[in-house]
Amino acid sequence: MNNRTGQSAVASIPALLHRNASRFANRPAYREKEFGIWQSWTWFEAEREIEALALGLIDMGVNAGDFVSVVGRNRPYFYWAIAAVQSVGAVPVTLYHDSATQEMAYVMDHCGARVAIVEDQEQVDKMIDIQEDLHQFEHMIYIDPRGLRKYDHTKLHQYSDVQDKGREMRDTHLSELEARRGKLDYDSICVMLYTSGTTGKPKGVVLSNRNIIETSKSSAEFDNLRHDEEVLAYLPMAWVGDFIFSIGQAYWCGFCVNCPESPDTMQTDLCEIGPTYYFAPPRVFETQLTSVMIRMEDAGRLKKWLFDHYMAHARKVGGDILDGKPVGAMDRLKYGLGNLLVYGPLKNTLGLSRVRVGYTAGEAIGPEIFSFYRSLGINLKQLYGQTEASVFITLQPDGGVRSDTVGVPAPGVEIRIADDGEVFYRSPGTFEYYYKNEESTKSTKDAEGWVATGDAGFFDDETGQLRIIDRAKDVGKMADGALFAPKYVENKLKFFPNILEAVVFGNGRKECTAFINIDLTAVGNWAERNNIGYASYQELAGHPQVLETVRAHVETVNESLATDPMLGGCQIYRFLVLHKELDADDGEMTRTRKVRRGVISDKFGDLVTALYDGSDEIFTKTEVTYEDGRKGSISATLKVIDAKVQPVETRQVAAE
Question: What's the rounded Cα separation, in Å, for the pair 394 and 336?
């Protein structure tokens, strides 16, 4: 620690890169699967690649303080680009590669990016479509040259050519690069990441080297992460989670970042790498479990019996064995046999055989799903965080893992609960400010550094761990004064493999109602097994047996809610299964799959009305966006389904 500045001797990502290139010179830093073959770069080689690009950027005229957008899927070239941009004193701004052109235009214009580093022709075309409105935009660098030979290359440059130019001009620009790297300190901007924008325009969250390095250091120490960890980088690069796992912690610890060949090969690549440190949002774990259950439905009688028998035993003792709690010798022996016959092969199929530390976050994960993975011996835990915190607000310690909490304050994090239940925190990872948005900065972070999360929660008396109820802005009251917490109910609904998404209504009303999206994979498999033909999502979603299945799920959730004295009033009286999947391209969800409630309420106002006016069915017509950006519309007549609700017995007992 440098006593004069109060910062680490390695005060930036480029400084950590240089340290790793010396300390772990011949250890793998990056792997990428291309054309079915894994390619590898050591830390020494990665530093050379990054330096060449940084020198090329200087030759191109990139100045300290410039903003450079990075748009693409997880590839070593983009991680190198981020480090190269930082090395020249500029600020990387990562964008979701599947963003629509108007979303890209907003971010590019807001940050004033002069240069964009993109992947392929698709991204180049998007940039060309919007560049006339971006007066500051000057250069575009692309990685994949396919389809771009006849484009105007006046200000369009191939990534490898920029690197070659950097190597050619090394003697000329090296002293300038070293000077810029030398000026980087803890207060320098490390990255700017944009929030998902669930209620308005995305905000540019400015994170410093202090934020990223201190958070990476403390979280790595919490879980004893080492230089020999293996991670699979597949989450969006524009998301803070990928930045902290694949850059912050990877650079602090010196472990290897593995990039899959494509989203389609992700599961295969996961199995080949066998990560030791793994993060996935609940939807990924739910999808994997749905796939397992579908395969078991199609399995032979013996295989199905073995699976059911040993999984029942795993649910009984697996979690206790993982946590080091006392378990009888016979139970341990049976679990060992189950590991040989079922658990081990299953973990290998899922690609999770070597996971030492696993995390999930972003949404609540179903207790049954959570316990399923832990019963297999996978150390899956939950964390709570946000972009403004450099991810970590709480973490679950080994031996203290629960499905209904999100853990204890992460190292260096302070948490307090306001009188209205909103969660506040402050930590070394607390963001610097929102770019060009002083008003939002002041309303989110006070003078003492306390940040309003916008989430409502409380500390569990039994464990001392934090429980999150819902977004504070979404928590309301029913007409009778009962608590309304839609996200809590939605997460319960999404625990069922057949339900992909749910949106619950009821604030200020006498009853709760819901929109449901079915999971096409799970329900489609059921339809095939039962010889039920369908031509589209819409047709399957309206099938009478599907509607009855969803009704059963809703009523099961109602039974569960009825036992909760605080949330029993949120039982769902009526619902409908939507005729289309909620889609980020249609503005109904963010790129991180968070529901935009306001947009949905406005867009489907006629359907909300039908849920409350007693209608049995309603005809609706909805505008949709196709993959190529074209607009169209779909229409359908939707059934409105009544669901049975239960008396809230526990509230009555409590009142007595």
Answer: 33
What token pair was written down for 630? 């074209």
Closest by CA position to 83, among listed 43, 112, 133, 31: 43
DSSP class per residue in 395-450: EPPTT---SS---EEPTT-EEEE-TTSEEEEE-TT---EETT-HHHHHHHB-TT--
In this structure, what is the dihedral angle of CA atoms 352, 466, 493, 368, given to the nearest 10 degrees?
40
**Residue bearing tokens 């060949």:** 261
- Whole-angstrom distance, CA of residue 229 vs CA of residue 276: 6
Structure confidence by residue, pLDDT tens digits, 369-428: 899 999 999 999 999 999 999 999 999 999 999 988 999 999 999 999 998 889 999 999
CA distances from 94 to 68, 191, 192, 237, 603 (A): 8, 8, 7, 6, 29
Tokens representing residue 56 in the block: 């090329």
Helix 282-297 to helix 367-375 angle (10° resolution) is 70
Domains 14-184 and 474-655 share a fold: no
Half-sphere exposure of residue 569, counting CA atoms within 13 Å on the CB side? 20
Considering the domain delimited by 14-184, tell me its CATH architecture: 3-Layer(aba) Sandwich (3.40)
Max intra-chain CA distance, the chain: 83
CB 583 within 8 A of CB 593: no
Nearest CA to 406 among 467, 454, 451? 467
Q: Give backbone dihedrals phi and psi of 365, rounded to 5 degrees, phi first.
A: -105, 145
Query: In this structure, what are the phi and psi dihedrals at residue 567, rounded to the nearest 5 degrees?
Result: -120, 15
Q: What are the residue boundaries of the structural domains of the chain, listed by start?
A: 14-184, 474-655
**Reported pTM:** 0.82
CA distance 529 to 140: 50
pLDDT score at 559:
92
For 474-655, CATH gives 3.30.300.30
